[in-house]
Amino acid sequence: VDVSGTVKADSLSNLAVGGDAYYQTISGTTVSGASYPGSPTPPYVHMPISTTTLADWKNDAAGGGTITGNCGPAGVAACNTFPLTLGPKKINGNLVIDGGEEFIITGTIHVTGNVEISNNSIVRCDPAYLSKSCVLIADGYIDINNNGALTGSGFAGSFVMMLSTIQGCLGSSGSGCAPGLSGISVSNNVSGAIFYTTNSLIDISNGATVSAVVGYNLSLSNNGTIHYDPLVSSVTFAPASTGSTGGWNVNNWNER
To answer: Is residue 116 a contact partner of residue 99, using CB atoms and an 8 Å limit?
Structure first.
């Protein structure tokens, strides 16, 4: 594993650290900057999205109406034809985007089931978000693979955030999880976006590159990359593409 910046952890093993290293134990690791052995355990950092904000986002989605049934191929009427523009909206079912289709978010999306995005499909914020970001929440798992692309509105500072609230998918245990027993699985050349789990593992593998990630657990393998975008530190999420009802600035969303 190559880390271009500073690393802080109790134990470091088989790393190439481009910056400084703070640790208690170390093995098989090269450090280009200064080393600080015997460093204390890094302090606990609260998750940047509060339960209150999460509830507000779900309420915003429900305020746009509810779709009962799955969205995607063979989904319910008005939610099975692509390109699909949707939001704010609550989906009581699963969301599947496959085969190079495009899903455009115009307001917060809350999916009570699972989200699957694959095979060159695109998810993006509507251009009217401008520099603000859009949100897709799943109560189930999120699985993104095979060149899925997730982008903001096209303006600097705009991102798609994929957030899963599924619990107990920790890599070594769990049920109803994404591949790797994860809450969010990102693989096979997926690019862009912010990924967030409240109580489960995020698994990044096989050439996937993400802009930012916050998770209860994190696994990186097979050329998975986190390319931190400094604009994430000041990201603002809007409930709708017009931003007419305000937005949320998430505290402490910064590189750790």
So the answer is: no
